[in-house]
C-alpha cells in the first residue's frame, strides 16, 4: 500500500481508476508485480516492443486517414500525401459505402462522397489506386459492415494490376463488434457479422497471407465512453471472439493470429496511455499463449495503429489541437506503435484540409528527424512510475477481460446492448464532470477565449460530384453483363445461406462489377439485418 | 418521470439520429440528461429518414423533436424534415438540433424552424433548461 498523501496534497486518480502517487520508487515496481513482465523487446511478453530494434530499423508507418468525394478526388489527395513523404494510405469511405448502400439508394441522398470516398463497384477502386505502387505503399481500408465486399474489391483490383496476392500487404479495419458498441456502420445481425469476419480472415490466410484482414478497434469503444483499461480489455475480448470463430473452422492459430492487428485511441493522460500500450502488449501475448498455444512468436504480437484521438480534440481554439496532436504522436512513438494516423486540428469541424493533413504528417516526421524518437527502443522502460503503472494497468485489464468472459462473453454482451449501456453511462458521467469543471479541458471549461473566431477552412460538399457518381453508376449498370451479375449475386446468396465461406462468391461478384449495394442485399437476404437494442440501464 | 408544475404530463421528447451517421455517443448522453431532468425520451436509434422522424414524432405526440448529427448532412436533412413536420401539424412543437454544427449553418437551421442549436461541447444543463423554458 502507498503511504498517505502529505497534508494539503490532493489525491489524483487516473481515468482507469488507479491512484497516482507524487513519487515512485523501486519499491512501487516490486509491490505492483515486479519486473517479471518486462523482458526484452522482440521477446515474449513483448512489453517493450514486438521487434528487437523497433524504430531503429524502420520508423512507424505514417498513414493519414483520407478520402472524400469520388475516387478521382481521393486519388489526387493520396498522391499529394505520398509526394509529401507519407508511407501508407488509410482510406475513408463515405457512409453509403460503409453501410452497404449504392450511391443511387434513396438513403444515400446527401451523403455520397461526404465523409469519405464513394465506392459502388470495382471500377471506383481501380481509379482510386491508379498509379500507386501497392507494394511500396501499404493501404488500410477503414471499412466494417461492408468489409467483406471491399476486401474482395481491393484484392481483385490488386490482382488485375498484376500484384501478387501471396506477398500483398495491407489492412482492413473489418471489426464489426466494435461497430455495435460505437461508430454504428453495422448491417447484419451480430452472429452473422462475426461469421463474415471469420470468412475474411480464413480467406486471406489462404489467398493473401500477408494481408491483415482485421484491425480490432479499442479506439471507438474509448470514444463511446470506455476508460483506457476497458478500451484495451474489450478489444482483446473481441479479438479472441474472432480467433475462436476462425479456430472453429479448423485453421491453426499460427496461420492467422500474426495478421490480426489493433487500432487504439491516444487521448488522455500521457503516462496512462504509454502504460496502457506497454501493458496491453504483455497481456495480449499472455492471452494468446495461454488460450491458443501458438508456435510462432508473431502470433502473440499486439501490432497496432495509434495516433487518433478525436475525443480529446476541441471545437474551441482549434489551433490547440495541433499541440494536442503533437503530444499524441509523442505518446504513440513512446508506446511503440507500428503505424500512426495522427488526428488533424480541424477535424472537430470538417474533413481535414490538405494543409491540416500536412501539419499532422510533418509532426510525425519531426519526431523522427529532430527529436530522436526513432533512436532507442522503449525509452520510458525502467521508469519507476511507468513500470508500476504498466503493472497496474495490466492487472486492471486482465480483471475486465475475466469479468467480461464470466458475464457470458463479449459477443453476448454486445448483442444484448450491455456493453453499449455501460460505456454510454460513463460518457454521460464524463460530460457531467466536464460541465461541472471537475474534469478540466483547456479552452472548454478553463482558459476560454470566447472572442476568437476559429481559423478553419471548411471542406465543401460537392453536390455535382455526388450526382456524377450516381450517373456513372447508372452507366455501369447499362454496360456491364447483367446476366453474369445476376448469376454472381445468386451465388453470393446461396453461399451466405449455406455454411460455406462467402468470400469466393463475393470475389466473383465484384469481378463481374456487381455493386456494394447489390452484394449487400444478396447477403442480407440470407443473413438478415441488425436491429439495434437501445437501453439506458446496464 | 414527473410532470413539471402546471403540466399534466412530463415533457415528451423524440431524440433522433438522422441519416447514416453512426456517432451516437452524444445522442445517448443527451438522452440520459433529459431522462434525469424528468422528461420522457423516445430514442429512435440510428439511420432515421425524415419520414420516419416525422411519423414517430406524430405517433408519440411529443413536445420536442430533437436531432443529433455529426457527419455533416444536418442542413440537407433538416430541409427535408421541416416541411414533413409542418404537414404533420407539428410546427407548434419545439424543434432542436445538436452535434457537429458549424457556426455558419446555425442561421439556416434556425430559419428552418430549429429554435435550439447546440453544437458539440454544449452544456447538458443548457439543453434541458432551454427545453423547460419553452415547453409549457
Layout of helices and strands:
The complex is a heterodimer of chains A (538) and B (136).
Chain A: E1 12-13, E2 19-20, H1 26-31, E3 61-62, E4 65-66, H2 71-83, E5 88-92, H3 95-98, H4 122-128, E6 138-142, H5 147-160, E7 170-172, H6 176-181, H7 190-207, E8 211-212, E9 214-217, H8 219-223, H9 228-247, E10 260-265, H10 270-292, E11 304-308, H11 320-334, E12 339-340, H12 354-369, H13 384-406, H14 410-415, H15 418-436, H16 463-479, H17 482-497, H18 503-511, H19 516-527
Parallel strand pairs in A: 3-12, 4-5, 5-6, 6-7, 7-8, 9-10, 10-11, 11-12
Antiparallel strand pairs in A: 1-2
Helix pairs in contact in A: 2-4, 5-18, 7-9, 9-10, 9-13, 10-11, 10-13, 11-12, 17-18, 17-19
Chain B: E1 12-16, H1 25-36, E2 40-43, H2 50-59, E3 64-69, H3 74-87, E4 94-99, H4 106-111, E5 116-119, H5 124-134
Helix pairs in contact in B: 2-3
Compact overview of the structure:
The complex is a heterodimer of chains A (538) and B (136). Chain A has 19 helices and twelve strands.
Give an account of the 3D structure.
- The complex is a heterodimer of chains A (538) and B (136).
- Chain A has helices spanning 26-31, 71-83, 95-98, 122-128, 147-160, 176-181, 190-207, 219-223, 228-247, 270-292, 320-334, 354-369, 384-406, 410-415, 418-436, 463-479, 482-497, 503-511, 516-527, and strands at residues 12-13, 19-20, 61-62, 65-66, 88-92, 138-142, 170-172, 211-212, 214-217, 260-265, 304-308, 339-340.
- Chain A is α/β, with parallel strands linked by helices and 538 residues long.
- In chain A, the strands form 3 sheets. A 5-stranded parallel β-sheet of chain A has the order 3-12-11-10-9. Chain A has a 5-stranded parallel β-sheet with strand order 4-5-6-7-8. In chain A, strands 1-2 form a two-stranded antiparallel ribbon.
- Chain A starts with 11 loop residues before the first strand and ends in an 11-residue tail after the last helix.
- Chain B has one domain (12-113, 123-131): Rossmann fold (3-Layer(aba) Sandwich), CATH 3.40.50.
- Chain B has helices at 25-36, 50-59, 74-87, 106-111, 124-134; strands at 12-16, 40-43, 64-69, 94-99, 116-119.
- A 5-stranded parallel β-sheet of chain B has the order 2-1-3-4-5, sandwiched between helices.
- In chain B, helix 2 (50-59) crosses helix 3.
- The two termini of chain B are 16 Å apart.
- The interface between A and B is large, with 41 and 32 residues.
Amino acid at each position: 500500500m502507498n503511504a498517505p498523501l502529505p497534508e494539503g496534497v490532493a489525491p489524483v486518480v487516473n481515468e482507469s481508476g488507479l491512484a497516482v502517487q507524487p513519487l515512485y520508487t523501486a519499491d512501487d515496481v516490486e509491490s505492483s508485480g515486479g519486473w517479471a513482465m518486462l523482458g526484452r523487446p522482440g521477446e515474449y511478453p513483448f512489453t517493450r516492443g514486438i521487434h528487437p530494434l523497433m524504430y531503429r530499423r524502420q520508423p512507424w508507418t505514417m498513414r493519414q486517414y483520407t478520402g472524400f468525394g469520388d475516387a478521382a478526388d481521393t486519388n489526387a489527395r493520396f498522391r499529394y500525401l505520398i509526394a509529401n513523404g507519407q508511407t501508407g494510405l488509410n482510406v475513408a469511405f463515405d457512409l453509403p459505402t460503409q453501410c452497404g448502400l449504392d450511391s443511387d439508394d434513396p438513403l444515400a441522398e446527401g451523403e455520397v462522397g461526404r465523409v469519405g470516398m464513394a465506392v459502388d463497384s470495382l471500377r471506383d477502386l481501380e481509379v482510386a489506386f491508379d498509379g500507386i505502387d501497392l507494394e511500396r505503399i501499404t493501404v488500410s481500408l477503414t471499412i466494417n459492415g461492408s468489409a467483406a465486399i471491399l476486401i474482395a474489391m481491393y484484392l481483385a483490383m490488386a490482382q488485375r494490376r498484376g500484384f501478387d496476392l501471396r506477398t500483398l500487404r495491407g489492412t482492413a479495419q473489418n471489426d464489426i463488434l466494435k461497430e455495435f458498441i460505437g461508430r454504428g456502420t453495422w448491417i447484419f445481425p451480430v452472429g452473422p457479422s462475426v461469421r463474415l469476419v471469420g470468412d475474411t480472415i480464413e480467406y486471406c490466410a489462404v489467398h493473401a497471407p500477408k494481408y491483415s484482414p482485421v484491425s480490432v478497434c479499442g479506439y471507438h469503444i474509448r470514444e463511446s465512453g470506455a476508460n483506457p483499461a476497458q478500451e484495451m480489455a474489450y478489444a482483446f475480448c473481441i479479438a479472441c471472439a474472432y480467433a475462436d470463430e476462425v479456430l472453429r473452422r479448423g485453421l491453426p492459430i499460427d496461420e492467422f493470429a500474426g495478421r490480426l492487428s489493433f487500432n487504439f485511441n491516444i487521448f488522455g493522460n500521457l503516462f496512462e496511455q504509454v502504460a496502457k500500450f506497454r501493458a496491453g502488449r504483455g497481456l495480449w501475448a499472455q492471452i494468446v499463449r495461454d488460450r491458443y498455444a501458438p508456435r510462432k512468436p508473431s502470433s502473440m504480437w499486439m501490432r497496432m495503429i495509434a495516433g487518433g484521438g478525436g475525443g480529446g480534440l476541441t471545437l474551441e481554439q482549434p489551433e490547440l489541437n495541433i499541440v494536442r496532436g503533437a503530444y499524441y504522436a509523442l505518446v504513440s512513438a513512446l508506446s511503440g506503435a507500428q503505424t500512426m494516423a495522427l488526428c488533424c486540428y480541424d477535424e472537430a469541424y470538417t474533413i481535414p484540409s490538405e494543409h491540416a493533413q500536412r501539419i499532422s504528417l510533418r509532426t510525425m516526421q519531426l519526431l523522427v528527424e529532430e527529436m530522436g524518437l526513432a533512436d532507442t527502443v522503449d525509452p520510458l522502460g525502467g521508469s519507476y512510475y511507468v513500470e508500476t503503472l504498466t503493472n497496474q494497468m495490466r492487472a486492471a485489464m486482465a480483471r475486465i477481460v475475466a469479468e467480461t468472459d464470466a458475464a457470458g462473453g463479449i459477443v453476448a454482451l454486445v448483442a444484448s446492448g450491455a456493453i453499449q449501456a455501460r460505456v454510454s453511462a460513463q460518457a454521460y458521467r464524463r460530460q457531467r464532470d466536464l460541465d461541472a469543471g471537475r474534469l478540466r479541458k483547456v479552452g472548454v471549461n478553463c482558459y476560454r477565449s470566447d472572442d476568437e473566431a476559429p481559423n478553419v477552412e471548411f471542406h465543401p460538399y460537392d453536390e455535382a460530384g455526388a450526382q456524377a457518381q450516381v450517373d456513372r453508376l447508372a452507366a455501369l449498370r447499362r454496360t456491364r453483363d447483367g446476366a453474369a451479375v445476376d448469376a454472381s449475386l445468386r451465388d453470393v446468396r446461396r453461399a451466405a445461406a449455406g455454411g460455406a465461406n462467402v468470400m469466393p462468391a463475393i470475389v466473383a461478384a465484384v469481378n463481374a462489377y456487381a455493386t456494394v449495394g447489390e452484394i449487400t442485399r444478396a447477403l442480407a437476404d440470407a443473413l438478415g439485418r441488425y436491429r439495434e437494442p437501445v437501453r439506458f440501464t446496464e | 418521470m414527473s410532470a413539471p408544475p402546471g403540466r399534466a404530463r412530463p415533457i415528451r421528447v423524440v431524440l433522433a439520429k438522422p441519416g447514416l451517421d453512426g456517432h451516437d455517443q452524444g445522442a445517448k448522453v443527451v438522452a440520459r440528461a433529459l431522462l434525469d431532468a424528468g422528461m420522457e425520451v423516445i430514442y429512435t436509434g440510428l439511420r432515421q429518414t425524415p419520414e420516419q422522424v416525422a411519423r414517430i414524432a406524430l405517433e408519440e405526440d411529443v413536445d420536442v423533436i430533437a436531432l443529433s448529427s455529426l457527419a455533416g448532412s444536418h442542413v440537407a436533412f433538416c430541409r427535408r424534415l421541416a416541411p414533413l413536420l409542418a404537414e404533420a401539424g407539428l410546427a407548434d412543437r419545439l424543434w432542436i438540433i445538436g452535434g457537429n454544427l458549424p457556426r455558419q449553418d446555425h442561421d439556416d437551421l434556425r430559419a428552418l424552424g430549429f429554435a435550439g442549436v447546440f453544437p458539440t461541447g454544449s452544456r447538458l444543463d443548457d439543453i434541458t433548461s432551454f427545453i423547460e423554458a419553452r415547453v409549457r
